[in-house]
Amino acid sequence: MKSIAALQAVVTATPVDGEPSDAELDAIEREIPLILAEVDLLDAQIMTIDRPVTEVDTQRIRRARNRVMAARRDLTNRAGLTLSGGAA
Fold first, then answer.
1. In the chain, which residue ranges form alpha helices assigned H by DSSP?
2. Mean pLDDT in the chain?
3. Rounded to an integer, what distance in angstroms lies between the CA atom of residue 72 and that of residue 60?
4. pTM listed for this prediction
5. What is the mean pLDDT of residues 4-25?
6. How far apart are the first and last CA of the chain?
7. In this structure, are residues 68 and 37 in contact, taking their beta carbons and an 8 Å threshold?
8. What's the rounded Cα separation, in Å, for the pair 59 and 67?
9. CA–CA gap between residue 22 and residue 18 (Å, rounded)
10. Is the pLDDT at 10 greater than 90, yes or no?
11. Which of 82, 86, 35, 41 is nearest to 64 (CA)?
């Protein structure tokens, strides 16, 4: 039976910095419009949890969903341009 101490060096051999890399920060920054649109949608949905949904609530949720879809579309289109090099 192997000792745990013998395996500890293998497990902790590569210390993790814990900070996001520049590439990860850039990816988050590109996704901020989508993240904010999803937060708005979640807020609109949360507001209707404990009360009946009114016409205004329905419109608010529909607009928030449209913003999420537009942000996803824009993010996907930008990703497609960077992958293809912009050549169409």
1. 4-11, 22-46, 55-84
2. 85
3. 18
4. 0.69
5. 71
6. 61
7. yes
8. 12
9. 13
10. no
11. 41
Rounding to the nearest 10 degrees, give the CA dihedral for residues 60, 62, 63, 66.
Answer: 160
Nearest residue to 65 via CA among 38, 46, 30, 35: 38
pLDDT, tens digit, 9 for 90 and up, residues 37-48: 999 999 999 999
Q: Are 65 and 37 in contact (CB under 8 A)?
A: no
Q: Could you tell me how far CA 52 lies from the centroid of its own chain?
A: 30
Which two structure tokens, joined as six digits, stand for 64?
Answer: 């928030």
- Distance, in Å, from the CA atom of 65 to the CA atom of 9, rounded to the nearest integer, reads 49
As given in the structure block, the two tokens for residue 62 are: 């529909």
Q: Say which residue the tokens 């910095």 belong to.
A: 17
